[in-house]
Specification:
Length: 737
């Protein structure tokens, strides 16, 4: 879309009003400004994007347009006699950033979309380094994302770095989300009167080069006699970055990342049009309570691309800060190693694209890595040099960082007692820090202390929290810190439950109202004296147990009732009777107050002895329940009633040596013991015979083992109660496997 040139005239009028005035501020109202020698940036205080509304600080060079001051650059290095930009404000601007969660995009855009509200939280100007921080909290559906954006500019650079730290303050994992940054680069429209730019995918992470560099640019050729070529690019290093161009309001982060929705992300592709360039970052499985860091550079001079990418690297050490990098210091950074060892290292997304070497190698764990452990005994000034492993991915120019390491004796810092303390309101606790010469304590409710030993007498539970002690040795400059977590409880109103149980059962003693409890006697509970609010154990005798917490005491009583023990005589479980027998059973239970029989026919009885005539074949059980108050015990015994005469011939046996069904036997009742049994094979040959009910066949014959198969049996017998001799026949099967 084309924008009205009227905005150009408005911009020129604004420049005339402020051009010759002195810059007096970097923070103006709720907006912020980063003013370097060759780059000037305005940042909106509510949305956190480039594009400050209202009047710019005097002496700056924003051409304005649409009421915004975005960013301008002076790659001509002619003290702003000629310069490029504003890069997106001549007409209806499109510039901003956003997050996509669950397929929904939430955008902060300079036209007034603030899905994620926030404010500027910090501004620093240290030597030649400028930092501006913006923070906001985004409610993205059911997700809570804290966002911190840092803009960093080194005074004489023609590029600046944007670092975004996202923290998932939700209670659940976010499977997939994206960050995006987009702009419609109008570059030098205010001079050329042309909104079109040459938009190019210079590099793409995961592209054919194998590098993890993503870079998209929008450029305009110079206007003769007025300006040099105008260049704007986004670049980042990492497998999770992608760039694209196309469209205008590119506010779908997934389309930007995938190069879909009319957008182009193919390496080497270019298009001359009035359209946007964009960068996106992909986050998968964003765990609750964790943070992800996104870092990219905005480049305003094409020849500075490699220097800008090198700016993603920085030297860190104990005591260093993430911003600014150590290159902002006008003296050599000094690492104080207060006893033992310390790591010094180069960090950044493309650190592995360089081969690193440290000089000298004295006291280093490894002189050929980007991260090394230094254990000095004397002061050493180290230089670390990064030589590109391949110039395909990074600048061919080596990088160097210098740092001094100075050893000091260890402080021997400590805090007593321990790292956590529990107390109650009004109960004082004391802490002692040692090892330093000066001390500083801070804690909840504005608590402070300036001595090694401090006393805390909490008046409310608000005094709970982390108390921090900082110790400093004024002779060496070494410092150390430690924490103690204090939990303050109100003086509780304790409640305690009592129990009545049977001997050998488990009772649970439960107390509420405090956090630390002491049960007494602890030995009777089978637990240490100091335990949790709930005690579960098995009791055989009763007792009284006292629980206390802070300043309250309650008593919990366990009453134990002896168990009834059910027993009776006259029957052995599994016993066999003949029809016509009489079964007599007698109660012999102990510790009972009552008992009850349940007989085979479902009837019940409370008699001490019960006589049961066995008149028919049956299989049943008799149950006796003995009761003592709430405690019960039961005993069941089962029996069989069979006919007076019976003969049972098995239909199978397995003589395989496993001691299970290895012998073929006849089971009989009511017949004489002189019964004769003969075994035949299927051809009628007698294989084996025996006399008497106790005999049997183990599957062997005179000629060896009988094979698996079917066999024939003849038994001749006489009933005990008289009568003629009888003969029964039958078949059975022998299995050996």
């Amino acid at each position: 879309m084309k924008k009205s040139i009227l905005h150009l005239r408005i911009a020129i009028i604004l420049i005339l009003l402020v051009f010759n005035k002195i810059i007096t501020a970097q923070i103006v109202g709720t907006t912020g400004y980063i003013i370097g020698s060759h780059v000037e940036i305005g940042v909106d205080g509510t949305g956190g994007f480039e594009g400050a509304s209202g009047a710019a600080p005097v002496g700056t060079h924003f051409r304005g347009g649409f009421g915004l001051n975005g960013f301008v650059a002076n790659p001509q290095l002619d003290s702003w006699a000629n310069y490029n930009g504003d890069f997106f404000t001549p007409g209806s601007p499109e510039n901003g950033w956003g997050l996509q969660v669950g397929g929904v995009n939430y955008s902060n855009n300079c036209v007034g979309e603030f899905a994620i509200n926030g404010s500027l939280t910090n501004y620093t100007h240290i030597l030649d380094c400028y930092n501006l921080d913006w923070e906001g909290t985004a409610l993205l559906g059911s997700n809570v994302i804290k966002t911190k954006i840092n803009y960093f500019l080194q005074e004489n650079d023609l590029f600046y770095t944007t670092t975004i730290v996202l923290t998932n303050n939700s209670t659940t994992t976010i499977p997939l989300m994206y960050y995006y940054r987009n702009v419609d680069p109008d570059n030098n429209e205010s001079i050329s009167f042309d909104f079109d730019t040459h938009n190019t995918i210079e590099d793409q992470a995961g592209g054919p080069s194998g590098c993890q560099l993503a870079c998209v640019s929008g450029s305009q050729v110079s206007v003769p006699g007025v300006s040099s070529d105008s260049y704007l690019a986004f670049a980042a290093v990492g497998a999770d970055y992608r760039v694209s161009y196309g469209g205008f309001s590119n506010r779908s982060a997934s389309d930007i990342w995938n190069g879909t929705g009319g957008l182009t992300g193919t390496v080497g592709s270019t298009n001359f049009a009035d359209e946007a360039i964009s960068l996106a970052f992909k986050i998968q499985n964003f765990l609750p309570g964790t943070s992800r860091t996104i870092k990219f550079v905005t480049i305003l001079n094409s020849s500075d691309k490699n220097r800008a990418l090198a700016n993603l690297l920085y030297l860190t050490y104990p005591g260093s800060t993430f911003y600014p990098p150590s290159v902002c210091s006008n003296v050599i950074d000094t690492v104080k190693v207060c006893g033992g060892s310390s790591y010094i290292q180069v960090e950044g997304p493309n650190v592995l694209d360089y081969n690193w070497s440290w000089s000298p190698t004295t006291f280093l764990s490894s002189p050929l890595t980007y991260s090394t452990l230094v254990s000095p005994t004397t002061t050493v000034v180290y230089t670390v040099t990064g030589t590109p492993a391949s110039t395909v991915c990074v600048s061919p120019i080596p990088l160097t960082y210098t740092i001094a390491v100075k050893p000091y004796p260890p402080m021997g810092f400590s805090i007593t007692p321990g790292d956590s303390v529990k107390t109650c309101v009004g109960v004082a606790v004391s802490f002692t820090a040692s090892g330093g010469t000066n001390y500083s304590w801070t804690g909840p409710g504005g608590f402070t202390g300036s001595t090694g030993a401090v006393v805390i007498t909490p008046t409310t539970v608000i005094s709970s929290g982390v108390y921090v002690a900082m110790a400093t040795n004024t002779l060496t400059g070494c410092s150390a810190s430690g924490t103690i977590h204090v939990t303050v409880y109100p003086n509780p109103l304790i409640t305690a439950a009592s129990s009545t149980i049977c001997s050998g059962q488990t009772a649970t003693l439960l107390a509420t109202g405090a956090d630390t409890y002491t049960w007494s006697p602890g030995s009777a509970l089978g637990n240490p004296v100091t335990v949790t609010p709930t005690v579960t154990t098995t009791y055989s005798v009763g007792g009284t147990y006292t629980i206390s917490g802070c300043k309250s005491t309650k008593t919990s009583t366990v009453t134990v009732i002896p168990n009834a023990i059910a027993s009776f005589t006259g029957l052995t479980s599994g016993q066999t009777f003949l029809v016509g027998d009489m079964l007599n059973i007698t109660n012999t239970s102990t510790n009972f107050t009552s008992y009850n029989w349940t007989l085979c026919d479902g009837s019940s009885s409370t008699a001490s002895t019960v006589a049961i005539p066995l008149t028919e074949v049956d299989e049943c059980c008799i149950k006796l329940v003995a009761t003592n108050g709430m405690c019960k015990d039961s005993l069941s015994k089962c029996y069989n009633v069979i006919p007076k005469y019976s003969l049972y011939i098995p239909n199978v046996f397995t003589p395989n040596g496993d001691n299970v069904n290895d012998v073929f036997r006849i089971t009989a009742l009511g017949i004489k013991d002189d019964a004769k049994v003969a075994i035949y094979n299927r051809w009628g040959t007698k294989l084996y015979e025996w006399t008497g009910l106790s005999g049997g066949w183990d599957g062997n014959t005179k000629s060896g083992q009988a094979p698996s198969g079917t066999y024939f049996l003849i038994i001749n017998y006489t009933k005990i109660d008289g009568g003629e001799a009888k003969t029964d026949k039958g078949f059975f099967t022998l299995f050996r496997d």
